Amino acid sequence: MRPQHLGDIIPEPEREPEPAKRGPGRRRATNATKKSTGRAGRNLPAAIAVGVALVLLVLASLLIWPPAFPGLIAVAAGAGVWEMTRALKVTGAEPPLVPLLGGALLMVGLAWHDGADSLLIGLVVTIVAALLWRLADGVAAVRKAFTPTVMVAVYVPFLLSFAVLLQLPDADRDGRWRILCTLFAVVLSDTGGYIAGVFLGKHKMAPAISPGKTWEGFAGSICAAAIGSALLLYFLLGIPSYWGLLFGAVLSVVAVVGDLAESMLKRDLGLKDMSNLLPGHGGIMDRLDSILFAVPTAYLLFAVIAHQL
């Protein structure tokens, strides 16, 4: 029988008198100690340094040595799989880490070598291998691991491997520009949404999932991504501006959906960040949330645009 209240077991200690109100000097001193951290208590200098390093790493892999980009995607997919399997353990689910890590490498490699059809084969092989791995613990363990295994395999390495498909074929260097246009559309969406939300945001979009998002910010995301993408696709790929507007608007919508999906998952798991791999940012998945839905959407949109032009 559960106790009704902790106070029924341990007597409540006597309350100490409330501290006196802070004077102006003490308030300034307290605020001064918080200047090294940004929003939500994050280390702002570390966040900026890590963010710049990530951007330079992606640019270097695309513009200086393109074969390094699939390797970078493989590392990100592996780290994302590790974070997801670790986070899902709080629910009692135990998707097997080793076959999922191997499957992440397999999917990225197959996407790079043979394209979309092989990527789908890699997904099926990964799920089957992970379930066979769990079969050693019995049929009940397989049933318990089925849903989280499929979720991790699809949500992280499968979706992220579309970034590799965007890079192919790269004989005319269009692949790297397609990736950059996709990433910049997501960045513009986040930036436009943040600015519009700060200055105009009044109506909450999904307060139960992400209290900071507003409909005004969402509109700012779409406008910034659409206008920026129209310019980028025209000057980098020679695609008419009306296609660029559509491209940016659609990617902004799916990027926001991806961000909300990650926020809802973390809220259900009781987590603030997926891990602390990236100082000032949280985990890899905290940075990939908008990109995961954006890259397969961009791949489909570029295929449609190529067919229409």
Total domain modules = 2
- Work out the helix count: 11
The biggest beta sheet reads: 2 strands, antiparallel
Question: How are helices and strands ordered from N to C?
Answer: HHHHHHHHEEHHH
Approximate shape:
globular
Q: Overall mean pLDDT score? A: 84
Radius of gyration: 23 Å
Across the major sheet, the strand order is 1-2
Tell me the β content.
under 5%
The structural class is mainly alpha
Number of strands: 2
Query: Distance between the terminal alpha carbons, to the nearest Å?
Result: 71 Å
Low-confidence stretches: 1-40
Helix share, percent: over 70%
Description:
It is a single chain. The chain has 309 residues and is mostly helical. The protein folds into 2 domains: 67-168, no CATH class; 171-269 and 281-309, no CATH class. It contains 11 helices and 2 strands. The longest helix has 29 residues, at 241-269. The model is unreliable at 1-40 (pLDDT under 50).
Indicate the topology:
Blueprint: H1 24-32, H2 44-63, H3 68-88, H4 97-114, H5 116-135, H6 139-160, H7 162-167, H8 174-200, E1 204-206, E2 210-214, H9 215-237, H10 241-269, H11 284-308
Antiparallel strand pairs: 1-2
Helix pairs in contact: 3-4, 3-6, 4-5, 4-6, 5-6, 6-11, 8-9, 8-10, 8-11, 9-10, 10-11
